[in-house]
Amino acid sequence: MPNKIISQGSTTNEAIENGLKQLNVAKNMVDIKILEEEKRSFFSILAPRVVKVELTLREEPMQKEEKVRKDIFLDEKEQQKAKENIDLFLQELLPQLPENTTYQIKTSKDGLKIDLQNEKLGYLIGYRGETLYAMQNIFSAIAGKGIENKVRVILDIEGYKAKREKTLQELAEKMARTVIKTKKTITLEPMQAYERKIIHSKLQENDKIETKSIGEEPHRRIVISLKNT
User: CA-CA distance, 83 to 194, in Å (whole number)?
Assistant: First the structure.
């Protein structure tokens, strides 16, 4: 898929829209430069006006998809303190949650893994995990209270993350088959960074397909296209 094209139309807006359709992206994912406005015929003043624009995809290489995270390891004392912080918070939170909600906390030098269990907790997951990941950030801040190092928290509710990962992997395979069959590039809808990473990883060994991310957060998307041969 080219990262730069020149498109044209009878108006500037029409030229831009034509280019966006060719790239199959939203307007906020490209830089736009108006090249020229001209007549189709030098000799006829009645000839339709032509506007040419250059559209360039905003993109970063795949390897920059995720910022490099500095590994922080917690000693046993820090692990215990982080667990106590979360235990105290959850004991206060449980009465506000559906009856029979339970939780598990696992500690390691990498941080905490917290699992909330109750089939009625779907409202804490939110659309595609948005609420869940917001809560995870809150839990991380709470776990780190009184600890010098930042505490990494992985929060899951009713096994949502494993189910979502499987769904994304199946989506990646389906879209790859479609691209190979139609020879047309596909741009997925905006996803969170962890979701994009799953799709990149799933397709990186496909010798016919390449993936990259375009756009700015929170509207960053994956583009799946045929490799240049």
Answer: 25
User: Long-range pairs for 216-219 at CB < 8 Å and ≥24 separation?
Assistant: 216/28, 216/58, 217/193, 218/190, 218/192, 219/26, 219/28, 219/29, 219/190
Residues 6+ apart with CB under 8 A from 120: 98, 101
pLDDT (tens digit per residue) in 17-52: 888 888 777 777 778 888 866 554 444 444 556 788
Residue 169 CA, distance from chain mean position: 14
Collect contacts of 163-167 with beta carbons under 8 A, ≥24 apart. 164/128, 164/129, 164/195, 165/198
Q: Are strands 209-214 and 186-187 parallel, antiparallel or unpaired?
A: unpaired
Domains of the chain: 4-57 (no CATH), 76-158 (3.30.300.20), 162-226 (3.30.1370.50)
The C-alpha atoms of residue 171 and residue 54 are separated, in whole angstroms, by 32
pLDDT digits over 112-162, tens only?
A: 999 999 999 999 998 888 899 899 999 999 999 999 888 999 999 999 998
Closest Cα partner for 141 from 82, 88, 218?
Answer: 82
C-alpha distances in Å from residue 147, one per residue of 63, 105, 108, 140? 32, 18, 15, 11
Q: Which residues contact 134 (CB under 8 A, 6 or more apart)?
A: 126
Cis bond upstream, residue 48 (ω within 30):
no
Element at 71 (helix H, strand E): none
